[in-house]
From TrEMBL:
Signal peptide: none annotated. Pfam families: Sigma70_r4_2. InterPro entries: RNA_pol_sigma-70-like, RNA_pol_sigma-70_dom, RNA_pol_sigma70_r4_t2, RNA_pol_sigma_r3/r4-like, WH-like_DNA-bd_sf. This is Sigma-70 family RNA polymerase sigma factor. GO terms for molecular function: DNA binding; sigma factor activity.
Length: 232
């Protein structure tokens, strides 16, 4: 099965799960309300991948600082909880800027789960030591990424962005971007068209283009400086 076919199957499975949730929790709503909930379910399917990535990053922050151990909260399970919470509050879901609303919902869910887990932990561990890189060489993916980011005509490389050994280095750089810039950039990496990103983030398509180019330049320069520091 090809990657697009596999993604299509996963979307169908997710949509089925969301519909099953709606059926298990019926509400006395107007036909307009039912239409609205169906619309939100479809939007959740479209936003699932970037939302899960956002949840993974949020969980990662708490793990990095030793608030919760690694593996206690999984991004898939937490994202499913965020989807349920979003469906429960479907009346609050905006048509424009939906992804920003989903991120706020995700933050609340993650923090609630972290606090519940923290209460069960007898003592906290500190993981605030800087990330250590083995040797003087960076992963080839990061070296390639610097070159690609510096070329405004180059396609944003999803395979490089998502390569496991480059994730930690890139995450450090992405954390320096304003949240909206970071999410716009990553949605562009996912292949979303500018008008769809604009709708999700509540900005204009023109702003999307400017944000992506500014983010590329910023990340390329930051990674270049970081590499020089490590090689000094």
């Amino acid at each position: 099965m090809s990657a697009p076919e596999s993604m299509g199957v996963e979307r169908e499975k997710l949509l089925t799960r969301l519909h099953q949730h709606l059926e298990r929790h019926p509400e006395e709503v107007t036909s307009e309300g039912r239409t609205r909930r169906e619309w939100l379910a479809l939007q959740l399917v479209e936003h699932y991948r970037p939302l899960r990535r956002f949840v993974r990053r949020e969980i990662g922050r708490f793990v990095a600082f030793g608030v919760v151990p690694s593996g206690v909260l999984t991004d898939q399970d937490v994202t499913d909880m965020v989807l349920v919470r979003a469906l429960q509050h479907w009346r609050e879901a905006p048509e424009r800027g939906l992804f920003r609303w989903l991120r706020r919902t995700a933050r609340r869910v993650v923090r609630q789960l972290v606090e519940e887990e923290r209460r069960r932990i007898e003592h906290e561990r500190s993981l605030e030591e800087p990330v250590a890189y083995q040797g003087d060489e960076w992963p080839d993916q990061v070296v390639r990424l610097i070159d690609i980011l510096a070329d405004p005509t180059a396609q944003l490389p999803e395979d490089v962005i998502l390569a496991e050994e480059a994730q930690r280095i890139l995450d450090e750089a992405l954390d320096r971007l304003p949240e909206t810039w970071r999410e716009v950039f990553l949605l562009k990496v996912d292949g979303w068209p500018d008008d769809q990103i604009a709708q999700a983030e509540g900005v204009s398509p023109e702003q999307v283009g400017r944000i992506v180019e500014a983010s590329r330049a910023f990340l390329a320069e930051l990674l270049r400086e970081r590499r020089q520091e490590l090689e000094a």
